[in-house]
Amino acid sequence: MTDKIVIKPQTHPLDINWQEIWDSRDLFYYLTWRDIKVRYKQTVLGVAWIILQPLVSMVVFTIVFGNFAKIKSDDIPYPIFVFIGLLFWNFFSSALSSSSNSLISNENILKKVYFPRLMAPVSSTFAHIVDLVPTLLILVGMLVYYKTVPSLLSLVLLPVLLIMMQIAALGVGMFLAPINAKYRDVRYILPFFIQLLMFATPVIYSTSMFGGTSQWIRMVNPVAEAIEISRSGFFGTRPMDWPTFGISIIFSLVVFFVGFYYFRLKENSFVDIL
User: Fold this and answer.
1) Neighbours of 12 (CB within 10 A)
2) How many angstroms separate the Cα of 100 from the Cα of each of 74, 103, 152, 189, 249?
3) Other C-beta atoms within 10 Å of 89: how many?
4) What span, in angstroms and rounded, lies between the C-alpha atoms of 99 and 194?
5) pTM, full prediction
6) Rounded to an integer, what distance in angstroms lies between the CA atom of residue 162 and that of residue 173?
7) Region for 236 from its dihedrals, namely left if φ exceeds 0, alpha if ψ lies in -120 to 50, beta otherwise
8) N or C: which terminal CB in the chain sees fewer CB atoms within 10 Å?
C-alpha cells in the first residue's frame, strides 16, 4: 500500500505543518546551496568577492570618513571600527535583499513543484551565513593586529547578534516578498531603500554622536545595536546596556512575526500572481 500525500489549503496563517517542513529538509539544503553557487557562478574571482567587497569598502571609508572627514570612532582605530560595521551591515542587507526577491528567484520551481513556501525566503537568508566565515576570519586577524583581546561576553553575544539580525532581515523580507511578486517595482525600490537605511545605521559613525537619541536608534534598528555592542565589547568603549539590547531583540521578533504572518496570509496566491 502506497502512502498518499494530501495537499490542503491552510485554514489559518499560523496553522503550520511542521512535519511537512521537516520532510522537505533536503530541498532546503538544495535551495541554500544553489543560492550560494549561483551567486558566484561564472565570476573570475569567485568567492574572493566575499573578502574583497568589505576590504575595499573599509579602505575607501577609512580614507574618506576617517582621514578627511575625521568622523568620531570612540577611540577605536577607524579601519576596524568601520569593518565591524560593514560586517554586520553587509550580512543584514544581503539577507534582506535575497529574502525579498526569493519568490521571484524561485518562480519556476514554485509554478511546477509543491513545497512549503517558507523554504524560499528562509533558505535565501541562510545562504549568506557562508559569506560570514571569511569576513569573521578577517576580523580576527584585525583584532590580533591591533592587539585587542575581546571580552568573553562579546564572544558569547556575537552569534546572538547575528541571529537577531537574521530574524529581522527575514521578517522584513517575508513581508516584502509577496508584494514584490505582485508589484515588481519593489525590486528596484529596495536597493535604494537599503542604501538610505545604511546611513541610518552606525556603519561609518558612532551612535554616541547623537547623545540620548542613540538609545532609540539602537532599539528600533537591530543592526545598529549589534554593531554598537560588538564595538564596545571588543574595545570596552561603554558598559553593556541590557535594557536597550532586550528591547532591540523584542523589536526584531515583532518584525519577524509580522512578516511571517503576512507571508502566510498571502501564501495561497503566490503562484497566481507570479
Assistant:
1) 8
2) 35, 8, 35, 11, 21
3) 25
4) 13
5) 0.89
6) 16
7) left
8) N
Give me the mean pLDDT over the 259-271 stretch.
Answer: 87
C-alpha cell at 76: 577605536
**Pairwise CA distance, residues 98 & 95, whole Å:** 5
Contact 59, 67 (CB under 8 A): no
Q: Is residue 143 within 8 Å of residue 233, measured between CB atoms? A: no
Most confident of 142-156, 206-220, 236-250, 252-266: 252-266
- With 0-12 / 13-18 / 19 or more C-beta atoms within 10 angstroms meaning exposed / middle / buried, residue 60 is exposed
pLDDT at 2 over 60: no
Contact (CB, 8 A) for 252 and 246: no
- Written as nine digits, the cell of 3 is 502512502
Q: Are 163 and 90 in contact (CB under 8 A)?
A: no
- pLDDT confidence bin for 215, thresholds 50/70/90: confident
Following CA atoms 180, 168, 143, 58 in sequence, which dihedral angle do they give, to the nearest 10 degrees?
A: 30
Q: Are 263 and 174 in contact (CB under 8 A)?
A: yes
Which grid cell is 186?
519593489
CB 88 within 8 A of CB 223: yes
Q: Find all residues with CB under 8 Å of 120, minimum gap 6, and list them.
A: 31, 102, 103, 105, 106, 110, 177
Residue written as cell 560595521?
85
Task: Please enumerate in sequence order all residues whose Cβ is within 8 A of that of 212, keeping only pairs 6 or more positions apart, or say none.
Answer: none
C-alpha cell at position 107: 518562480
DSSP state of 41: T
